[in-house]
Each structure stands twice: as structure tokens, then as C-alpha cells.
Amino acid sequence: MQAERQQANLPLVRRLEAVSFRAWPAASVQYDGSWQVRLTGGHPSKRLNCVVALDPSDSRDIALRLERAARKFDAYGRPLVVRETPLTPKPLVEHLIAEGWTCFEEVVTQTVDLTALDIPDTLDHLPTQDVGRFVDASLALQGQDPALKPVLAEVINSIKPTVGMFLIEDPNAGPVASLLCVQDNDLAGILLFAVSDKHRRRGVGMEVLSSALRWARMRGARMAWLQVSTDNEAALSLYARLGFVEAYRYRYWSKDGSQ
Question: What is the C-alpha to C-alpha distance for residues 118 and 68, in angstroms, rounded to an integer?
């Protein structure tokens, strides 16, 4: 991560971090200096429940600030999670390592130039306006608890940029693929992308992703971004076929390896 930190385009990292916060807004956002404390009761997303530092030079009082953040997480019944990006101060990472924290997931942020993407400007699928229907499908495809529906709907409804909710459904089998596209001026974020196990490797993922990217491009987006776990080989292969390339990586840390 430290070598990647040196190579990362920090202005691009800052821009993509900011747009990702708008695309996936936490219910509670507090600042301790330049450290952002993100919490969302009732939803397990790590991006909605983490501490992320936004200035490489802001490394004062690390232990004290982590302790303050831990109290906030305790109030939500959650373990403290730190999200390390190329903007994270090096002394903070060194402190986590020295204190025995565990890095439990690495994620790559990728981008693609939509203006150069070779896809026709026709839409195979139009975004749905039915948040409840989309949320039901998304939770089912990701194998998540249906009880998360109210809080996930609340997260989606709180997104301020333009949202496109894409669904492919089968009359008999139910939801086949779902994807949330958030268009924020000239940037488009891909989130909640899921394909049913029975329909993978049949071109369905490419179909819904291409539709979302065309939709965003027709609305003025010039670059698309997404975040995917480095161990998700199927998704990485799909994105590579469309021309997505790595912008930077980030990692999650916790005291006891819990997520």
C-alpha cells in the first residue's frame, strides 16, 4: 500500500473519494480534524461504517482520536473499522500495525473513459423508478437479509446526485441482475452490481453494466468509476473487458479482524 501511495494520482484519489461519499452517503458523518467518521445504523456496509483520513499530513494524537472514534462506534454497536487509502497518513498505518490491527480486505477503485468506450448509444434497459422493487431485487441477488430493506432504501433515497436503478428480471425466476448507477456531473459510479448465480457467464452482467454506462454517458458523464474487492476475479475480468483500469486501492483494518 505504501508503494501504491507513492504512485497514486492524489488529486484523482481526492476527487473519487469525494464523489464516492456522495454516491454512498452515510447517515452520520462527523469530522475529527480531516478524519471522517462514517456511521449508519442498521446497515453493515463497511464504506458506511468506517473512519477514513483525508489528509496525509494529519497524524496528530492518533491513539486519542482512535479512542474517540471507538466510543462512537460502540454507541452504534459496531467494531471500529479504519479505511486506509492513499490519503491516509503513514504514521496512522504504522500505529495500526504496531497495535496488532488486522487488514481484512483490499479493494481496487477502477475507472474507464466513457468518451472512448465502444458501446452504441442505445439503451437495452431503462432505469426503474421503483426504489422498493430495486431494493428487494438487490438484497435477494446479494443474498442479504430482507430486513435491511428500510435502511438500504433510506440510503438510496438520500443520494443527492442523479440515480439510475437498473434491473433485469425473469418472469419465472425473478430478479436476474441489478445495478445502481450514480451520475455526478461528469462522473458515474457503479454500485450494488449483482447477478444471480444461475445467470452468470451468460452475458447478463455485461448487458446491464453496458446499459448503465450508456445511460450515464448520454446524460453527460465522461468517466465511470467502481470499487471491487481484489479477490473478486469474475468481476475484475468483466471490468477489464470494458476497459476499466486501476486508479488506486484501499484497505480495511480492524482491531480483532471483525467486519
Answer: 49
